[in-house]
Amino acid sequence: MATNKNTPKAAPESNEEVKSQTEEKTPVPVAPRKPFKLTTNHILWAVGIIALLIGAFGLYERLTEGLRPTALGAYVPWGLWVATYEYLVWLEIGSLIVFTLIVYVFKTHPVLHKMALTLYLTALAILAMALILIGLDLGHPFRFWHVLVSPQWSSLLAWMIWAHMIYMVVLVSKLLIEAYASASSLKKIGVFLSYLSIPLGIALVAIAGSVFGVVIGRPAWQGNGLPLYFLISSLVVGTGLLTFLFVWFYPNKEEQEYLETVRWMGKLLLGLLTIGLTASALGGMVLLYPGIPAQAEALRLALFGPFWWVYWVLHIGLGVIVPIFMLLVPRTPSARQIGVAAGLLIFTFIAVPLNIVIPSQLVIGIVEADLVDAFHGPTLMANYFPTTSEWLITLFAMAFGFLVFLFGFTVLRLRPHDDSTSKEAVK
To answer: For residues 32-63, b (16+ Cβ closer than 10 Å) or e, as one string?
Structure first.
């Protein structure tokens, strides 16, 4: 087709139009994706979720088969879950009592104020563990609301449940006020709740000890010394938890005030550990002196029975001698040494409630052997060792609490304050 020479040519495009078209055609460079980097948080989340899923199998067995997968029976109705529950109550209540006494009552070591959020979060995670275990230990866990609606006040169990529910409300309120409150009126409420938590926590621990002390069929538990021993144990292991959190989670470890407070906490831990060991020795002598078979045999089982290593190796060896050595031998122990000593104390103190709860029930096979041999049945067992299902549910509870702490610490960022005092601190 011939081109008409008379046809006017199109006007040349302007420089701006040419530049615009060129920019549209030029692809925009895409920033390369950063390679995935595995962090400590990723590992902790993975470990927590995997542990929760493994423990969920035990939870499924408990919900579908009741208490049949456990080793509990008529002679030993309280086992691993009850002992672990008592340990968690000591850990939770003791750390908060010691913290409140130092911060609000004696008003010393203001640097500890920064740990309020982390400590309250840890206590809430421990409370979640404790309530899961004691709830599943009940024959019908979903009927727990009966004791709230129609409590039998003649029962110490009702008092313990109500005290724990009230303490949970106080703890959650303190955490929310510390994290989000800015009004002075709310801060005053937070201070009031801190003071209230001291008598409430002492009452809760004392009631938990009294629940054992009033059981007529277990002579090794009887007496008025058990609530006091529970309180001392709570202060010991609670101080260990507070020291552990302060050593490893405090943000500015180069501060001189931090080092001074850590060393003071180490001395406090050493003193309370010595008091706890003395109370344990005196309690043992009181049980042995009258020569009552049920009491003496329970102590003998704990010290020299099949699981003697729980007391001598786990508790005395790793939980007492090694921490005392780490706190005493160097003239000025480092913060790391104090933190490791506190950690050893925390993780081995579970041996104390285990030796209180289980041997006192197993002794029935010795002092009442004729009764045990006369009747036989699936629940008439005088021996006890936790089944796989019991260990799995304990793992589930621990993993759940660990994930609660991890969520609060990493996602909600409930971490130590950067300011010199917490929002609730009394000036």
So the answer is: eeeeeeeeeeeebbeebeebbeebbebbebbe
Q: What span, in angstroms and rounded, lies between the C-alpha atoms of 226 and 149? A: 29
Task: Give me the amino acid identity at 102.
Answer: I
**Tens digit of each residue's pLDDT (9 = 90 or more) over 252-274:** 888 889 999 999 999 999 999 99
Find the angle CA(106)-CA(109)-CA(110) to the nearest 5 degrees: 95
Tell how many helices (H) and how many strands (E) occur in the chain.
18, 0
Q: Domains along the chain?
A: 41-411 (1.20.1630.10)
The Cα–Cα gap between 188 and 321 comes to: 43
Within 10 Å of residue 181's Cβ, how many Cβ atoms?
17
Distance CA 97, CA 106 (A): 12
- Spatial CA neighbour of 319 closest among 139, 4, 87: 87
* Cβ neighbourhood burial of 309 (10 Å; 0-12, 13-18, 19+): exposed
Measure the CA–CA gap between 251 and 255, rounded to whole angstroms.
10
> Each residue of 19-50: pLDDT tens digit?
555 555 555 566 567 777 788 899 999 999 99
One-letter amino acid at 70 equals: T
- pTM over 0.85, yes/no: yes
